[in-house]
């Protein structure tokens, strides 16, 4: 025995052992009562679960049959509607073909009229070009005749002017000869007069000398008188000779003037002949140039006419090609319209195969609830640790029955009530428009799933949603295009 500060250690140890023994007995009794209580609660929960399961299976079977019946009705209804739509599309197709034929005929008629109008317009334009060409030819011929007449007239005028000039020349020559004759006659008259005067002077001189001699004077005075008479006679004869000489000089001078005047008139006549010839030549040259201008103008008109007719011919060819292209386009438009009409033609309906009747849910087999096993009684002095695994198993099993087997059913993906989920995240949409989510169940925080939300399908596909015995909503994924998946 050891003492320490007046305390008996062995007694203290015995007291601890006694207290632990009493506690172990109490815990043994409590645990025993708990195990049996849990056992009976589990039996009751299993019975309730069995009743609920049977009721749920009946509901599911009826729901599956109702769904099958609805799908069968929808199959027949859809087939009837497809047949009705096909018949309507066939009728509409043939009506559209008739309309396309009428539209093609009207369009071809309009195109033919437009083409005919183009040909008529081209014909009028061609006739207008020919008329202008013929008018230009007639104008050129008329202008040519006018130039020919002008040249002929100029030649006639030239002949008249030449004739007139010749007549004037002959008149000038005649006047020249007459003037020469007049001058000779004047000179001859002057000389004859002078000769007559000389003869008279001689006679007078002889008479005067005879008279002087008859006076019978002699001597120097008589000689002086006779010499004076002779001197006067000589002076008078000298004066007369000078007048004759002067007349001859004047005659010669007048002949020179006449010759000079005739030469000048000859030059003027030749100049006039030259002017007449030049005028005729100028007129002929003007006529030639005018004729060349008329030819160039008419040639230009011919070139324009030929070019215009070539353009009209090309326009007619182009109009014909355009008419053919328009007819081809109209044919292609009709072909496209026929194709569009055939595209709206529904395919021949085929009745879809009938779905098989839904399978009945098999009866659920439940495990027999094990009775509690008697454990060894507590022993004094030994620290006994009671194993609670059996009780825990019963508790878990009872919780599973109470919640309707949420864990197992969660794995199948039928429980989709938002109240059973957390950490919900929207991730997309299925091809049929159902919203997809990722989440975990509240009792499985470490496992994520992907699926739909029952509350969403109540609005979109209510026949796929049902309520479990525990009040939570479930989804029949076979009625959707979504696969419930673990992540």
Please describe what this structure looks like.
- The chain has 487 residues and is an alpha+beta fold.
- The chain has 2 domains: 1-348; 402-487, no CATH class.
- The protein is 74% helix and 6% strand.
- The protein contains 5 helices and 8 strands; from the N terminus they run ββααααβββαβββ.
- The strands form 3 sheets. It has a 4-stranded antiparallel sheet, with no helix packed on it. The protein has a two-stranded antiparallel ribbon with strand order 1-2.
- A hairpin with a 7-residue loop joins β4 (435-441) and β5 (449-451).
- α1 (9-214) packs antiparallel against α2 (220-343) and α1 (9-214) packs across α3.
- The longest helix is centred in the first third of the chain and has 206 residues, at 9-214.
- It is rod-shaped.
- It starts with a strand and ends with a strand.
Strand percentage: 5-15%
Using the alpha-carbon principal axes, give the shape: rod-shaped
Rg from alpha-carbon coordinates: 81 Å
Distance between the termini: 67 Å
Largest sheet: 4 strands, antiparallel
Given helix and strand content, the structural type is alpha+beta
The unreliable regions are 385-391, 393-413
Q: N-to-C SSE series?
A: EEHHHHEEEHEEE
In DSSP terms (H or I, runs of 4 or more residues), the helix count works out at 5
Q: Classify the helix fraction into a percent range.
A: over 70%
The structural domain count equals 2
Mean pLDDT: 83
**For the largest beta sheet, what order do the strands appear in spatially?**
3-4-5-8
**SS elements, strand count:** 8
């Amino acid at each position: 025995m050891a003492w320490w500060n007046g305390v008996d250690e062995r007694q203290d140890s015995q007291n601890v052992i006694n207290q632990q023994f009493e506690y172990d007995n109490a815990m043994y009794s409590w645990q025993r009562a708990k195990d049996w209580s849990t056992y009976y609660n589990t039996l009751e929960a299993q019975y309730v679960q069995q009743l609920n399961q049977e009721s749920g299976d009946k509901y599911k079977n009826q729901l599956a049959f109702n769904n099958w019946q609805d799908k069968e009705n929808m199959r027949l209804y859809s087939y009837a509607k497809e047949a009705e739509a096909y018949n309507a599309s066939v009728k509409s197709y043939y009506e559209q073909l008739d309309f396309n034929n009428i539209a093609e005929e009207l369009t071809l008629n309009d195109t033919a009229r437009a083409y005919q109008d183009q040909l008529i317009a081209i014909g009028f334009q061609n006739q207008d070009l020919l008329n202008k060409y013929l008018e230009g030819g007639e104008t050129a011929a008329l202008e040519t005749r006018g130039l020919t007449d002008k040249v002929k007239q100029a030649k006639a005028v030239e002949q008249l002017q030449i004739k007139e000039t010749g007549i004037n020349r002959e008149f000038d020559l005649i006047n020249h000869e007459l003037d020469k004759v007049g001058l000779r006659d004047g000179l001859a008259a002057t000389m004859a007069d002078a000769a007559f005067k000389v003869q008279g002077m001689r006679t007078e001189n002889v008479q005067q000398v005879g008279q002087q001699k008859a006076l019978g004077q002699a001597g120097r005075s008589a000689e002086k008188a006779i010499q004076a008479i002779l001197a006067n006679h000589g002076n008078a004869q000298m004066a007369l000779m000078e007048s004759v000489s002067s007349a001859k000089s004047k005659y010669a001078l007048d002949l020179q003037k006449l010759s000079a005047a005739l030469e000048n008139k000859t030059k003027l006549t030749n100049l006039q002949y030259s002017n007449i010839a030049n005028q005729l030549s100028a007129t002929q040259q003007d006529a030639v140039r005018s004729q060349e201008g008329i030819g160039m103008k008419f040639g230009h008109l011919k070139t324009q006419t030929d070019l215009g007719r070539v353009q009209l011919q090309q326009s007619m060819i182009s109009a014909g090609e355009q008419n053919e292209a328009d007819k081809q386009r109209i044919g292609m438009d009709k072909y496209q319209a026929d194709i569009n009409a055939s595209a709206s033609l529904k395919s021949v309906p085929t009745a879809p195969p009938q779905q098989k009747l839904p399978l009945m849910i098999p009866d659920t087999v439940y495990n027999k609830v094990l009775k509690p096993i008697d454990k060894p009684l507590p022993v004094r002095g030994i620290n006994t640790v009671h194993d609670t695994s059996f009780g825990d198993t019963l508790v878990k099993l009872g919780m599973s029955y109470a919640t309707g087997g949420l864990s197992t059913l969660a794995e199948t993906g039928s429980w989709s009530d938002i109240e059973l989920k957390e950490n919900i995240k929207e991730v997309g949409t299925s091809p049929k428009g159902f919203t997809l989510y990722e989440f975990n169940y509240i009792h499985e925080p470490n496992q994520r799933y992907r699926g739909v939300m029952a509350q969403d399908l109540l609005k979109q596909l209510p026949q796929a949603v049902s309520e479990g015995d525990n009040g939570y909503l479930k989804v029949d994924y076979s009625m959707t295009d979504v696969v419930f998946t673990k992540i």
